[in-house]
Amino acid sequence: MKKTAIILTALLLTGIAHAQYNETNNLFYHAQRIPQSNTLNPAFFPGNNSVYVTLPSTGLQFGFPLSIHDIVRYDSKQKANIIDINGVFDKISADNPFRMNWDMGLLGFGFRAGDLFFTFNTQLRTSMTLGLSGGIVSALTGGNMDDNGNPIPSVTVLNGNAFNAQMYLETSLGAGYQVPVIPLTVGVHAKLLSGVFNIQTDNTNIVIETDPNFDKVTARVYYEAMEAAAVPIDTAGGTKNILANLTKHLGEAVETMFDPINGNTGLAFDIGAKYDMGPFTFSLAVNDLSAGIHWQKNVNSMVPTGGQGVIEFEGMQVNNLLNRGQMNMDSLKYVAEQFKSLLPRFEQNTKDYWYNVPTKINAGASFNFLKLLRAGLLFHGQFDRGLLSKQNATTLDLGGNVANTFRFNTTATLGVNVFDWIELILGTSLVFDGNKADFFNPGAGFVLSIGTAVQSYLVADYISNIYITDAKAFNLKFGLNLLIGHGGRKRVLDI
Q1: Quick check: 250 and 324 in contact, CB under 8 A?
Q2: Which of 2.10.260, 2.30.29, 3.40.50, 2.40.160 would CATH assign to domain 2-305+343-494?
Q3: Could you tell me if 43 and 176 are in contact, meaning their C-beta atoms sit under 8 angstroms apart?
Q4: pTM of the model as a whole
Q5: Cβ–Cβ < 8 Å for 430, 446
């Protein structure tokens, strides 16, 4: 037992440097009146209704390492607002980029049949990440020398985490079973992931090397911006033909999205369990167990014309560029020739690749008090792996290694049942973004079930600060559901 505790503590301390806001709306987890809680744990099913239908819904989440006050602050000496450049660089890190996620629930339903229940769900998911590596921040603030004035032999300016975006359609079939002998419910989802588009620069690397005597600075550059889509991109026609291109290839796009063999598709699985012990409920779920999406249709990439680019800057005097009042064109041509190898070359029908869909872990516990209050605690973890196959990883001796990032946060919630048709939800999340711990990231929401037949909900999570100038993150979800029938076992307040 002691060894297990030590291992768990080590894992927690290892992950805490990467803990931050996630795209999951954690307040949904213990709000089990909402059918959408089933997407967070397949063992959850509304106990007060035998059938539900989810109507179109939407959710938006963003997280940013900087607030407005981090960028602009008031200087009492100058009596004016100034831009704090050093403060900005201090708070930017590779593990805390700008993140934006958008999801749209299209249509879903679920129904109970005795001890079994079945679910179907479709939703469109979009994610985007934009970040800077620690190396580029150090280079901008300290240049290529350390605090003692000595040259830094090697600085990694960019290591593949600059930008990525992905959109895919998730179609899910689920089943759950409520064990009659013990208070245990288990569930599983099987998902088809149909890729819409993917853009990423994970296979990118820029390294700056400095000689011991500052005689020469060498930049070794390789980049690869890869994209794949359900619709072929007309690179010659430009943006004006995008709509015509979409219309022309609409049938091909649908075929690509639902062809698991030759399309841009992937499979994922969720498993979950819930155990009731009187007023206490314990639950665990692992979501999106997947190899990712296999992007193999309409794949294109943009790479340097000369492959890996090597640019050398040697000590150069001004009079080498100016010769008797005229520009020394030979020197300029030398510099220009080195940059020419970095010009992009567009490649069509390049090799296929896999891209990750983050795997998530939800571990929760809740306590129901007199059927009126529900206090809950949730640990949410997320593994981000990015590009899973790098065709040119050996170009810069990257070795094909895939960076695994584990992000997590912990959320405490309180659900208040008002009458039999209103539930208020309050919560707060503990988040550590790599610089400091934020203990107060509040969330709030309500669930309104009119006649226990039409349900509306609005949930805002990760409100990092009630003052907009100090806010760094926000998560909002809202939608409508139709509730039909009665579960036959429990009333709403007994969930």
Answers
A1: no
A2: 2.40.160
A3: yes
A4: 0.79
A5: no
